[in-house]
Design brief:
By secondary structure, the chain is of the alpha+beta class. It has eight helices and 22 strands.
Length: 397
């Protein structure tokens, strides 16, 4: 290593000697005390070697005596490097600009993330908004951040977070937070009401008193089971209502099927557009507008950009437009009836809640000049007792 450093500082030359007296030239240099490295002979008989720059005058003198031609192949050393750098100043300017840019980027925070709350977008947005108010946002300098003060300021802004801490790793600021969980409310309600209209078949009151009898017809929202009220010292206490009310519920659905069926078929022509979304903002197009297909099917794929396990506020969207062709086919009355029945059965299957079962069904088919209308009526046995509030029932009686 020391020898290489000395050769680099003094400067060296890689030479090629052509002629019968090449070995005599090397002997003259060796007797003169000059250092020679990496001596080799190629297939053409030429001798290759590396010598210092101060050996060149003696080399020329010996080569003239022995009638040897000297070819300088490659010059190396500190002086050569400095001369090349002086001939290309833009290279050093670019290197200096790149180093300055890297130093400037590394001194700032560019990603602010709350990895523990990625599954809760609302809470994550609240944390990021509080961090921005406390002075932690993308683009701020690292050396100007007081992480303890920022954490305390965020805790004062967010009443429903018990603990907030901020940590820095390179250009990424991570926010760790623990939500404040209050005491859960008592289960149950003072009464259970009907989620759907129907005829009561069975009542199971586990806690409370039934307010209807078997065989009664109830409407949606009617109380079914009420809590019992009793005295507890000087106070009146009402127990929650717990139980089930099994009723017969009627479901109706109507489906129309024209005799002219329109089918959509995908064609070979398609167009792919790329878009960029910044912080869930408007899409920025990265390609030309979509082609003017008369009929097309549009599908979109969205992929979030991730850097070192942290989801960045950037999304890459790929929109595919497939050209379609619409064809028309004339159906028979039987085919139209079968298709309408299948659509009605699929629609009604999603209406039945868990634990219910179908009892019986009836269908009514009405034909017209342009299509078929099928009315499907089903009776189901299910629990209709729910706590008061918005009901998700889809039945109609």
């Amino acid at each position: 290593m020391t020898e290489w450093i000395g050769r680099y500082l003094a400067g060296s030359v890689r030479i090629r000697l052509n002629g019968a007296g090449g070995e005599q030239v090397l002997d003259d240099l060796n007797r003169g005390g000059f250092r020679i490295w990496r001596v080799m002979r190629d297939e053409g008989g030429a001798i290759w070697c590396t010598v210092l720059r101060d050996t060149v005058p003696a080399l020329h003198h010996s080569a003239r005596i022995h009638h040897v031609r000297v070819h300088f192949e490659r010059r190396q050393g500190l002086a050569r490097t400095v001369r090349q750098a002086a001939e290309r100043p833009w290279l050093w300017a670019g290197l200096l600009a790149a180093m300055t840019g890297v130093w400037w980027l590394a001194g700032h925070v560019w990603i602010v993330d709350a990895p523990a709350l990625r599954a809760e977008p609302k809470a994550r947005q609240e944390l990021l908004a509080a961090a921005a108010k406390a002075g932690l946002r993308a683009g701020v300098r690292r050396d100007g951040l007081n992480l303890r003060w920022i954490s305390t300021a965020m805790e004062r802004q967010l009443d429903h977070f018990f603990w907030v801490r901020v940590s820095l790793t390179g250009i990424v600021a991570r926010i760790q937070a623990v939500e404040l969980i209050g005491r859960p409310s008592l289960p149950g309600s003072a009464q259970l009401v009907a989620a759907q209209a129907g005829r009561v078949l069975k009542i199971e009151a586990y806690l409370g008193e039934p307010l209807v009898a078997v065989g009664d017809r109830v409407i949606k929202g009617q109380p079914l089971i009420g809590g019992e009220e009793f005295a507890l010292g000087r106070h009146r206490v009402t127990t929650p209502a717990v139980g089930r009310v099994i009723a017969e519920v009627t479901y109706r659905t109507r489906v129309s099927q024209p005799l002219r069926e329109h089918r959509v078929q995908l064609q070979d022509r398609r167009r792919i557009d790329y878009q960029l979304l910044i912080d869930h903002g408007p899409a920025i197009p990265l390609s030309l507008p979509r082609p003017r297909f008369r009929h097309y099917l549009r599908t979109a794929k969205v992929r979030a950009m991730v850097y070192r396990g942290v989801e960045m506020p950037l999304e890459w969207r790929q929109v595919v437009y497939n050209e379609t062709k619409v064809s028309t086919r004339q159906l028979t009355v039987r085919e139209a009836t079968i298709q309408a029945m299948e659509r009605a059965a699929r629609r009604m299957a999603s209406d039945l809640p868990a634990g219910g079962r179908w009892l019986q069904q009836a269908r009514y088919v009405r034909r017209s000049r342009t299509g078929v209308t099928v009315t499907l009526v089903r009776h189901a046995e299910q629990n209709i007792a729910v706590m008061p509030g918005p009901s998700s029932g889809k039945a109609r009686q």
